[in-house]
Design goal:
With 345 residues, the chain is of the alpha/beta class. Helices cover 33% and strands 17% of the residues. The radius of gyration is 21 Å and the shape is globular. Bound molecules: threonylcarbamoyladenylate and magnesium ion. Magnesium ion binds next to loops.
């Protein structure tokens, strides 16, 4: 393994790309201080220029305020008490913070914005790479633009040619992308979640209040401010090629009628529930896939499941709506976008 890391460090120093495992999804990493290397990420992913990237940073040996301040001040000109508290509470982990950028951060990383996204990932391979590399790594998810994020090394290999070096760190533990919290408009907006993830609003609020950080009253709750660009906030994203629709139980039969033809091969993805029996639907060619009842488990498996369904030549994927509640919010967000973007390519 040390040789592998050394090899990866060399590729990065030479301005190349390395796909790295993180606890959320695999990332496609380049030296965050090298404009040519960062541009290579955009051309490899087919990602439109101007979409900002997340800078991944190493974890300090001792997670004190001072140590985080040292690392973060290289990337941000204003490391607030809120940022330090959230770093101490959740890093290394599935949280990205948007902070005012430091002067030296190159515009290729920030999409020309005055802010920068920073995350300290919780995966031993990513951390040893970061500490040996000794700098920040810009890394979006290692998939082609708009497609399903990879949660295994094999998924990454399916996305790109063999020319990309992939560090195989097994299956990602969290399985969906990090929570993104914008702290750059703190005085007027407080902490704003731009992308839901495993770390919820409640967890952020609890950590801030435990650290004695006072969240400002919101001046503008109309949502009229100009939102920063987040590619994950486009309505179609994370999408399978196969047409997918989401359904509430009572709608399933009607939706099947309108979305399918008599010979259609249908993947019927749902939670275990005796009330809807196959009998009622036996005129359809259905393959049943039963979902786990836990949001954490489903997050872990979701992207691999969507990829597998996409490769199984179904005509349609019928996916049951997720239960209500904050625990399911992040997966509901990804699934909604996947459905909107599905069947387009
Ligand atoms: O879990 C994750 O966050 C994964 C792993 C690899 O760390 N990365 C990831 O990167 O999901 P990506 O590029 O697929 O999504 C990052 C999102 C994008 O939607 C981007 O627009 C947003 O973060 N972002 C990055 N910097 C930003 C900034 N300065 N302001 C607003 N949004 C930003
Ligand atoms: Mg992505």
């Amino acid at each position: 393994m040390p040789d592998l890391i050394e090899g990866a460090v060399k590729v990065l120093r030479d301005g190349g790309l390395v796909a790295i495992p993180t606890e959320t999804v695999y990332g496609l990493a380049a030296d965050a201080d090298n404009a040519d290397a960062v541009n290579l990420i955009f051309s490899t992913k087919g990602r439109p220029a101007g979409h900002p990237l997340i800078v991944h940073i190493p974890s300090p040996k001792e997670a004190t305020d001072e140590a985080w301040q040292n690392i973060l001040s290289h990337w941000s000109r204003d490391v607030s008490p809120a940022a330090l508290s959230l770093a101490k509470a959740f890093w290394p982990g599935p949280l990205t913070m948007i902070l005012p950028k430091a002067k030296s951060v190159i515009p290729e990383v920030t999409g020309g914005q005055e802010t920068v996204g920073i995350r300290c990932p919780n995966h031993p391979l990513a951390q040893s790479l970061l500490s040996q590399f000794g700098g920040g790594l810009a890394a979006p998810s290692a998939n082609r633009f708009g497609r399903i994020s990879p949660t295994t090394a094999q998924h990454v290999r399916e996305e790109f040619s063999d020319a990309i070096m992939v560090l195989d760190g097994g299956s990602c533990e969290v399985g969906i992308e990090s929570t993104i919290v914008d702290l750059s408009r703190w005085d007027t907006h407080g902490p704003v979640i731009l992308r839901p993830g495993a770390i919820s609003q409640q967890m952020l609020n609890d950590a801030l209040s435990k650290a004695g950080v006072i969240v400002p009253k919101l001046a503008d709750e109309s949502g009229n401010h100009s939102a920063p660009r987040v590619s994950g906030s486009l309505s179609a994203h994370y999408a399978p090629k196969t047409k997918m629709f989401l359904y509430e139980k009572e709608q399933l039969e009607d939706l099947l009628k309108s979305h399918t033809q008599p010979a259609s091969k249908i993947a019927w993805v749902h939670f275990n529930d005796e009330s809807l029996t196959l009998k009622k639907l036996d005129s359809y060619a259905l393959t049943e896939i039963i979902l786990p009842d836990s949001a954490q488990l489903l997050a872990q498996q979701l992207y691999a499941l969507l990829r597998q369904l996409d490769q199984s030549n179904y005509d349609v994927i019928a996916f049951e709506h997720l239960p209500k509640g904050e625990a399911w919010d992040a997966i509901r967000d990804r699934l909604g976008r996947a459905a909107v973007g599905s069947g387009i390519i």
